[in-house]
Write a structure and sequence with these properties.
This protein is mainly alpha-helical. The chain contains seven helices and three strands. It is globular.
Length: 172
C-alpha cells in the first residue's frame, strides 16, 4: 500500500473518486447499468424528458459521451428516445418504467457501497460540495456564490463548457 500520508489532497480525492466509481460499477453490473447510466436516469426521473444535449449539459459531459451512455440504456430498455417535434435533428429522451426500477435498485447499492456509511457523512458531503462549487464555477460559467445558494453539483467531470445551465440540486 502506498504511503497515503504523503499524498496531496487532490490525489487522495481523485483516487478515492475512481475507486468509488469502480466499486459502484462492479455492483451495478448485476442490474445492467453503469454509474454514468444511473446519473442520466436520475436526471431524467427528476426533470422529465429532454434532449440528449440538455441532459449532457446538466450532468456536465460531452454530448457524444452522453450518446454512448444513452445507447447502452436504450438497448436495455431503461430509456426511450423519440424524434423531437420541435427540432427534427434531435431526440427527446425519457426514462422508462424499467429505468425507474433500475434507478431504485441503484439507490440501495449506493447506500451500502462503503461499510460504515463513510460516503454519507454530512461533513464529507459538505466538503465535496464546496470543492465542486469552487472548481466548477469557472468551468461551468456560474459564480461559486450563486452555486452555493442553489447547491450546484456535477454528476460527472467533463470538458464541457458553454452557456450557463440549470444546476441540479444536491440530493441528501
Amino acid at each position: 500500500m502506498p504511503d497515503l500520508e504523503q499524498w496531496p489532497t487532490g490525489r487522495l480525492l481523485t483516487t478515492a473518486a475512481r475507486l468509488v466509481e469502480h466499486a459502484w460499477n462492479e455492483r451495478l453490473v448485476d442490474i445492467g447499468v453503469t454509474h454514468a447510466g444511473v446519473i442520466a436516469l436520475g436526471v431524467l426521473a427528476d426533470q422529465g424528458a429532454m434532449t440528449q444535449a440538455s441532459l449532457a449539459q446538466i450532468v456536465r459531459v460531452q454530448a457524444q459521451t452522453m450518446g454512448k451512455t444513452l445507447s447502452r440504456l436504450e438497448s436495455r430498455g431503461h430509456v426511450t428516445r423519440v424524434r423531437n417535434d420541435l427540432d427534427r435533428r434531435s431526440h427527446m429522451v425519457s426514462i422508462s418504467p424499467a429505468g425507474r426500477q433500475v434507478l431504485e435498485a441503484s439507490e440501495d447499492i449506493e447506500r451500502t457501497l462503503v461499510a460504515g456509511g463513510g460516503l454519507v457523512s454530512e461533513e464529507l458531503r459538505s466538503h465535496l460540495k464546496t470543492v465542486i462549487r469552487e472548481l466548477g464555477a469557472p468551468r461551468w460559467n456560474y459564480t461559486a456564490a450563486g452555486a452555493a445558494s442553489s447547491e450546484g453539483i456535477a454528476a460527472e467531470g467533463s470538458n464541457a463548457a458553454g452557456p450557463a445551465a440549470t444546476v441540479p440540486t444536491v440530493p441528501n
